[in-house]
Amino acid sequence: MSNKWLILLIMAFNGIMVILDMSIINISFPSLTRTFSTDSSTVLWVSVAYNLVSASMMPIWGKIGDMYGRKKLIVLGFIIFAVGLGLCAVSQTITQLIISRIIQAIGGSAHLALSMAIITATFLDKERGQALGVMTGVVTAGPLIGPTLGGFLLEVLDWRAIFYVRIPFVIIGVILSAIYLREQKKYTARTIIDWWGAVFLIIALSALTLFFNLGGTLGFSTLPVLSLAVATVLFLILFVFRESRFKFPLINLSLFKNRIYTGGNATMFIQNFTFSTILLLLPFLLIDGLGYSSVESGLFLTVPTIIMLFSPLSGGLSDRIGTKPLCITGIVVFTLGLFLSSRLNIDTRSFDVILCLAVVGLGNTLLMSPFNSTVLGSVSKENLGTAAAVFSTVRTMGLSSGMAFAGAIYASRQTWHTIQLTGIKNMEKLSLIAGYQDAALVMAIICAFGIVTAVVCFSKRPMQLRNHPKS
């Protein structure tokens, strides 16, 4: 096997260990609430803290990787991630668990920030689409299989197993990375890291994450939530002002003069924002609305995962016919899949659910790997690590904020429909289904804007890809 394909397999193996943490823990929330004698709003921070720290750290890891080399940071990050897993497994209080999750996020974000840059720099233009297709399948499938795997471990063992059973695999990942990854050329001279810029960015991303999460529970028009919106805008302005004047910025803002990169980030945010409908809300519809068991629901959710196993084929096809046709078709098909999911109702058959999820999976498969290849391939080598880290941050922020937003719509519309259906047979099921339909329809409409940003991304002839691997 060529060494570059071995590197890809190692990155994919490590990636699935990290990506699982975006969803594997959520199914244990009821158990954690009972174990630590706390409330659900406190337990929610086990997930919120992880996503918040992960998104905030990725640009920093990307910048340091450009300066010092990416291999050593991948190894260091995975060691920190393993330590975090161990601390989570032995946590005795909810506070200890949340702190341990923060340690986990610091380590795991290194892989999320640097893996795409490593692969982009390792493969030639003609092979990059297929290689990124493999990583795309991992990134997209991880959140889908997380609840199923977490539910199985919870049923057979306990919530601590969600963490400790992965430690041996993470150690294997550390060893493989240390032996087989090649240190890539440092394209950026060692400089001073803009820590003030990093602080401004972390506060802005934290405020944005809290805005969506607290908005779903307190309401988006409440004073605390509106204050978070103001804080997000304020600290983003401070960040841009600082970066535009600092000699060695954390993020080179000239990246966003690149139409392909800017349009790609916008599309990626929208796609992940709306994908949260499937990850978060569909299980409620299947189990509580349509009466399927948790096992049956888990099997349904494997449909997009199975479809996305063909992502390498999509990437390989894009290497031959170009990325534009696949990317535009992919986001259109994905939007159609979300719309079809909004039409699921109490008379829905199993075939209808499978068809809907297959369309969602097909859209993801057509879109993601060629899109990643195009967007990251449009960036110069010296900015590749930072650009990939920002790209990953946007994806993570889209997914976490989309979950909160979709959950808020679902809860409010379900309450409204409950009032309207008072006294009608099967009122609870019907109001739940109607709430889901409304949330899914709103997300499908939002996703349609992703079609616009994707078209903008390809509105002119794409520039020649400029990243070539160095031996």
Summarize the structure in words.
The chain has 471 residues and is an all-alpha fold. The chain folds into 2 domains: 3-193 and 248-457, Growth Hormone, Chain: A (Up-down Bundle), CATH 1.20.1250.20; 194-247. It has 18 helices and no strands. It is globular.
List the helices and strands and how they pair.
Blueprint (H helix, E strand, L loop, with lengths): L2 H17 L9 H7 L4 H4 L1 H24 L2 H19 L4 H29 L2 H32 L4 H4 L2 H14 L14 H24 L4 H23 L13 H31 L4 H15 L2 H11 L2 H18 L8 H28 L6 H37 L6 H31 L14
Keywords:
471 residues; 2 domains; 18 helices; Growth Hormone, Chain: A
Fourth-tier CATH superfamily name of the largest domain: MFS general substrate transporter like domains
Average pLDDT, all residues: 78
Count of DSSP H/I helices: 18
- The CA-CA distance between the termini, in Å, is 17 Å
Q: Would you list the SSEs in sequence order as H and E?
A: HHHHHHHHHHHHHHHHHH
CATH class designation of the largest domain: Mainly Alpha
Radius of gyration: 21 Å
How much helix is in the residues? over 70%
Shape: globular
